[in-house]
Amino acid sequence: MKWFKNFLHFFFPESCKICQKPLKDEEILVCGNCFKGLPFIKIYCSRCGNPLEEALIDYLLNKSISYCSYCERQKFYFDKVFIVFSYKSPISDWINEIKFGKDFVLAYKLGILLKQIMKEKLPEVDLIIPLPLSLKRLRERGFNQSFLITWGFLGKKPFDKFLHRILHTKPQAELSQKERWKNVKNAFLAKDEVKEKSILIIDDVMTTGATLNEASKALKRKGADKVYVLALARSTF
């Protein structure tokens, strides 16, 4: 079916989501010029994902810090965090299009873009899984955006049976930083199959890291060896 895909691309080329310029074969969602203008996160703690102050950007441009003061105040169960973008336009707009506009194709393509950017930067792992929603939230929303992004990242449907969200909690966006950590406490349950496995969890947005931390704790309790987090974007609290 490759010939059919090439046929469609020739007569109906995809256009850049920002400037509407036709995309080249290797370009995903945006053209090369618009890609350079995306809000890539410049400096963050690779241990917990905490963005560092703007004052340090010129001094530490394009570097990640292995440890920060935020790590001292919280116990983190994931071993390392990888973040691509700051939660700013157009990334924030696209995430909202997925959540509220149910743009499944956009979620899938963001997953492809995520893989394109990160394929040489991630460690080898045994399992790549999306951050799960509770069954009630999944029924209310009808889909899990992290699942769709992971689908695009893998190029195939993710196997999401290794980790479950067993508690239906309040939306984190409605809570204070302290409340967020309490809200998701013991919200996840992992399967025995994760024992001695290295695992990458993919999510759309990371803020305090509380939800991803609880998911990682559930995996570590079942004997997971290493747990890494990959977030499309990082928002500030």
UniProtKB/TrEMBL annotation:
Similarity comment: Belongs to the ComF/GntX family.
Entries under Gene3D superfamilies matching the protein: 3.40.50.2020
CDD domains: PRTases_typeI
Pfam families to which the protein is assigned, alphabetical: DZR_2 (PF18912), Pribosyltran (PF00156)
Residue span, Double zinc ribbon domain: 8-71
Native organism: Thermodesulfobacterium geofontis
Protein name: ComF family protein
Organism placement in taxonomy: Bacteria, Pseudomonadati, Thermodesulfobacteriota, Thermodesulfobacteria, Thermodesulfobacteriales
Source species, domain of life: Bacteria
Ranges where the Phosphoribosyltransferase domain occurs: 187-232
